TrEMBL record:
Residues 65-518 form the Major facilitator superfamily (MFS) profile domain. GO terms for molecular function: transmembrane transporter activity. The chain crosses the membrane at residues 66-88, 100-120, 132-150, 191-213, 233-252, 337-359, 379-398, 405-424, 430-452, 464-485, 491-512. It comes from [Candida] arabinofermentans NRRL YB-2248. It is a multi-pass membrane protein. The keyword Transport applies. This is Major facilitator superfamily (MFS) profile domain-containing protein.
């Protein structure tokens, strides 16, 4: 039986009625409309996204969403694991093993992360979330094994770059993928997802604590290969964990492409099929039909979409996606502030991790001098940091409190705490204040990770997230240079700069034009 195509007037009436119709949301839910990001630029895509959102809300939260949340969370965990082991092992892998004084490992890690964010993130808007999501961690684990087995500084740095290149766009994909499947009432889980950060960091520090003190040289002199295997064991053990996670993604969980990516690339039939199959599998209702999507018209944003583009055609599509991110004054303001925020937190987090102990030592603080104490304290600080995203997610349930306020709260509170570091003199004070600072930095950082893809339209979500991550990685590239040329200084300036920057980006959150808490994402 054929379905009669509605007229444009009838379609507009249908669209308005859909917005007012009850769904699986609670009666007091006011999230009926999508963020007005590119709605006026592509009415057809906005209408299709509206119908997809209604379908997701109608289906509700299923075991599939739970599995997806944990898979994306494992991606967060793996990212933080691999990112932190370079810093945790640098003293023994770079300084002692290869007799380097410049923190070249940190610099090369950020070089890899920078280009990885661009390459993997941009490609995800071309080839889809699924392929990049499935293979990024597999390549990361394989390159990590090779980095741990390196026999020269040159090979170590090459594999370090490749490890972080594969890892670079993973975080943007994790949160993007989960966001595009979540019903509206569960979007707060994107903020909660950052809890997995702490899991990965804690596991990495625990393994470093287990291997470094017992299997490492005590100095540069006479640092033989057989006496300095601890850093290699840290790489092998963490790479093994990431490999297991990547195998779960590939073989034990069948992940489907996100419907929002599909409709933004003129693949409406696949989007409907995926949602209908999801509803059927979990005995849920899904009334979305292909006829409804077709009635919305042809999308304009990706009118140059090609299923199998050449290199030249891919470059044209990438430029088109970037152009969309700066297509009017409102989105220019939004994306500029997001990129500045990511750059700022990159400076803050890098300076915090590199300058803190040097500053404390220069001012006579006794924060623990043994390797055992250093790694023990790192485990404690990272273990408690998981409460930061929980606090952030809980705050979103307070009436009138949205993502922007939570970021402001996290940034300003972190600034106050970091300024207090100038008063630390004992190990107990250091453990207490470092734990608290990790918590509130993660209130800001975790919310920013969730906010970024929420404030972007699906057609350019991975590209926009990648630009933001690239700014963060570029800031990280500057940190080891700053640290190297300032590490002998007893000035408190780096600590004050660290606190001031996160305070400023926290206040900038209030100037962001979009509030995802008040609307559904495109």
């Amino acid at each position: 039986m054929t379905t009669q195509q509605p007229t444009e007037k009838a379609l507009d009436t249908l669209f308005i009625e859909e917005a007012d119709a009850p769904s699986s949301l609670s009666d007091n839910d006011s999230h009926n409309e999508e963020l007005n990001y590119l709605k006026d630029d592509d009415i057809a895509l906005s209408k299709k996204t509206h119908l997809i959102n209604n379908a997701l809300n109608e289906i509700g939260f299923t075991p599939y969403h739970l599995y997806l949340m944990f898979l994306a969370g494992f991606g967060y965990s793996a990212d933080s694991q691999i990112a932190i082991i370079q810093g945790a092992t640098q003293k023994y892998a770079i300084y002692y093993q290869y007799n380097y004084s410049f923190p070249i490992g940190t610099l090369m890690s950020y070089v890899g992360l920078f280009f990885g964010a661009i390459i993997i993130g941009f490609s995800a808007d071309l080839i889809g979330r699924k392929t990049a999501f499935n293979y990024s961690l597999l390549l990361t684990s394989l390159f990590s094994f090779l980095a741990g087995g390196s026999s020269s500084i040159g090979m170590y740095l090459v594999w370090l770059i490749m490890t972080n290149l594969a890892l670079g766009g993973n975080l943007a994909l994790d949160v993007t993928l989960l966001l595009e499947y979540l019903p509206t009432n569960y979007q707060y889980l994107n903020t909660f997802l950052a809890c997995f950060w702490a899991v990965g960091q804690t596991v990495a520090e625990l393994l470093a604590w287990a291997f470094i003190p017992n299997y490492s040289c005590s100095g540069k002199l006479d640092c033989d290969f057989k006496d300095n295997r601890g850093w290699r064991y840290v790489y092998y053990s963490n790479a093994s964990i990431v490999l297991i996670v990547s195998m779960m993604r590939l073989f034990f969980f069948k992940f489907e492409e996100t419907p929002k990516f599909l409709i933004s690339n003129k693949r409406d039939a696949e989007a409907v099929e995926i949602l209908q199959n999801l509803a059927l599998k979990y005995n849920r209702k899904c009334s979305l039909t292909l006829e409804q999507l077709n009635a919305c018209g042809e999308i304009q944003i990706n009118d140059n979409y090609l299923a199998n583009p050449t290199a030249k055609e891919s470059w044209i599509q990438i430029k088109h996606h970037v152009k969309l991110l700066f297509s009017n004054k409102t989105v220019i303001r939004s994306n500029s502030l997001i990129i500045i925020s990511w750059f700022g937190i990159g400076i803050t987090y890098g300076i915090y991790n590199n300058f803190l102990y040097a500053f404390l030592a220069a001012h006579g603080a006794d924060t623990g001098t043994t390797t055992f104490q250093i790694y023990r304290d790192a485990v404690i600080g990272n273990a408690v940091s998981f409460t930061g995203p929980i606090i952030a997610a809980a705050m979103l349930f307070i009436p009138g409190v949205g993502r922007r306020f939570v970021m402001c709260f996290g940034g300003v509170t972190s600034m106050i705490i970091l300024m207090c570091y100038t008063t630390i003199r004992t190990e107990a004070e250091n453990i207490a204040l470092s734990s608290i600072s990790y918590i509130f930095i993660n209130v800001y950082y975790g919310t920013l990770y969730a906010y970024t893809p929420e404030a972007l339209p699906t057609a350019t979500r991975a590209t926009g997230s990648s630009l933001a991550l690239s700014a963060n990685r570029f800031a990280g590239m500057l940190v080891p240079v700053i640290y190297y040329y300032s590490s002998n200084s007893s000035s408190a300036a780096p600590i004050y700069v660290c606190g001031a920057v996160i305070g400023v980006v926290g206040l900038l959150a209030l100037a962001l034009p979009f509030e995802p808490s008040d609307a559904r994402t495109l």
